[in-house]
Design brief:
23% of the residues lie in helices and 37% in strands. The chain has 326 residues and is α+β, with helices and mostly antiparallel strands. A hairpin with a 2-residue loop joins strand 2 (59-65) and strand 3 (68-72). The longest helix is centred in the first third of the chain and has 44 residues, at 2-45.
């Protein structure tokens, strides 16, 4: 009888042993992750601040480097009388160095900041489903956190405000009121971007480190972001069949110039009302999005090589991009 029962009893004992080992392993992994996130929050938290620059609800920010605080544009509703509550609990006054509504980034200067800057990570290493931690500060200066995962990620993204971000990082976590402007941390405790609800109709997204660095550098240098423009208004139009055969690339549509700004870049280059733009920098343009894509990667002073249709003839035009008026 014992010989018959022994294999059955052994299998039960072994199964329970396996469950116990797996449970202990799972608990150990969870404890490790919890400890690492807690350590990261404590370390980076010293750089996280509360920014008082609007009524009722302050917004979060982070001391990007000594004396420089990065926060969100929509959280800075006044240019003066801005106060920053540091991680140490000390309140200091701040001056607005510049803002960029298209990326929802604002930069503040403070006279006496902390000595250490947070460790920045590479947002391009993020993958769908990665665990992340969002940090912020309350009105009273308490450090708060929200955990979740990367809910969506892709390449370059032009948002509804026309800003170009190096990545589109969508968050699957609760970004509570006041969290915008705070940092996003990866599992290694590195800052990979600035969180905001001001770019995607209230949805939580992250402005990646590469974009933040680029914007911060220009705002500190110039106080604004120089946006290139053409100085013309256009609308889609079909290209006549007798002209399609003359084009290097087969296209059925172009952009009809319906307005030319006086003394603007396009007028200075010789663009006329009624011209049809069908190619920019060697690429066909059938929609305004194509023009916006070309401008997003260009700078003031760059020359765009444009090909137009005028009076049934194809003409090349070189347009030197000007700076859009503020």
């Amino acid at each position: 009888m014992w010989r018959m029962r022994l294999p059955w009893l052994s299998s039960i004992l072994f199964s329970q042993f396996q469950k116990g080992v797996l449970l202990d392993m799972a608990n150990s992994i969870l404890e490790t992750i919890s400890s690492e996130f807690a350590s990261a929050a404590e370390k980076v938290g010293s750089s996280v601040v509360a920014v008082h620059a609007r009524r009722w609800m302050p917004t979060s920010g982070i001391e990007w480097k000594k004396g420089v605080v990065v926060t969100v544009h929509h959280g800075v509703q006044r240019d003066e009388e801005i106060n920053v509550l540091l991680g140490s609990g000390r309140a200091v006054s701040a001056k607005l160095a510049g803002r960029d509504p298209s990326t929802d980034i604002a930069v503040l200067r403070i006279e006496d900041g902390s000595s250490g800057a947070p460790q920045l990570g590479d947002a391009t290493s993020l993958k769908l489903g990665h665990l992340v931690l969002a940090l912020g500060r309350t009105r009273r200066g308490d450090l708060v956190a929200s955990s979740g995962i990367i809910g969506g990620i892709s390449g370059e993204w032009r948002n509804r405000r026309g800003g170009q971000l190096d990545q589109h990082i969508r968050l699957d976590l609760a970004l509570y009121p006041g969290f915008s402007g705070g940092p996003l941390l990866n599992a290694r405790g590195e800052v990979v971007g600035i969180n905001t609800q001001g770019l995607a109709h209230g949805r939580a997204v992250t402005v990646p480190v590469a974009t933040v660095n680029r914007v911060v550098e220009e705002l500190l240098e110039k106080g604004r972001i120089a946006r290139p423009y053409l100085g013309i208004a256009m609308q889609p139009v079909e290209v006549p069949e007798n002209m399609s055969s003359k084009l290097r690339t087969k296209t059925r549509a172009g952009l009809l110039v319906v307005h030319v700004e006086n003394d603007g870049p396009a007028e200075q280059a010789g663009v006329l009302l009624g011209d049809v733009v069908f190619e920019v920098s060697g690429k066909t343009v059938e929609h305004m999005d194509a023009i916006q894509d070309s401008l997003a990667s260009a700078r003031v002073g760059d020359v765009l090589e444009v090909r137009i249709i005028r009076a049934a003839e194809i003409k090349p035009v070189s347009i030197t991009l000007g700076e859009r008026a503020r």
